[in-house]
Fold this protein.
Amino acid sequence: MHIDSYEFGRIVIDGVSYSQDLLIWPGHIKKEWWRLEAHRLQLADVAEALAADPEILVVGQGQPGYMRVDPHLADYLRDKGIELVALPTRQAVQVINAEAGKRRLAAALHLTC
């Protein structure tokens, strides 16, 4: 998987354009993914991706970085030995491209705010 480009509200992955938030795990891209609470990422929001046993969860917090990781999710990831990287989406995309193919990766990407 390679993220070709990202701009506010739009991301292109392997030549396919998406304009909704995405949940990604090995072999899957869940389109039109949304969270229980808009700018709060909780365990239930990413449970599907975590079932794939990733080594790293990359969170794209939106262009200005408004989406926050719930402390309970951060604790859960730490207990499971899953690295958490939470950055504004533009920087998260760079991490995903750098780590893709090196480690089992999951990502939760907020494309707008």
